[in-house]
Design the sequence.
């Protein structure tokens, strides 16, 4: 069973940057598609960015395009989310998600993921 642990959240001023990391246990990370989701109070959990197992395919929500970058290091079983030009609307709990297989496809629906981290809080002050 894969376990995911996020880190890197915190409090930042608008315009600032944060880098989230998600470390995965297990020996199948290189074949797992990965994603970052976020959930603000009273709202649904939405996809932020996703990446295929190979890293060749990525997806970004319109709200974060040009500001966030998803990447992965399969040798270190880690996926990253670099967040720049942060806005107060980015405030949410950010979750890392993984799924078996997905070599060349970036999955965007929460229901398509079988593994979830515990979440990390990101708060952007104005």
Sequence:
């Amino acid at each position: 069973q894969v376990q995911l642990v996020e880190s890197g959240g915190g409090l930042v001023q608008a315009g600032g940057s944060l880098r989230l990391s998600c470390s995965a246990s297990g020996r199948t990370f290189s074949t797992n598609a990965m994603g970052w989701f976020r959930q603000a109070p009273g709202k649904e959990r939405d996809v932020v960015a996703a990446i295929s197992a190979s890293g060749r395919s990525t997806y970004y929500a319109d709200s974060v395009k040009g500001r966030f970058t998803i990447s992965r290091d399969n040798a270190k079983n880690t996926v990253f989310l670099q967040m720049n030009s942060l806005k107060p609307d980015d405030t949410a709990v950010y979750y890392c998600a993984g799924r078996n297989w997905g070599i060349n496809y970036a999955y965007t629906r929460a229901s398509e993921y079988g593994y979830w981290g515990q979440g990390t809080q990101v708060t952007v002050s104005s």
The chain has a mean pLDDT of 96. The radius of gyration is 13 Å. The first strand starts at residue 4 and ends at 7. DSSP finds no helices and eleven strands in the chain.
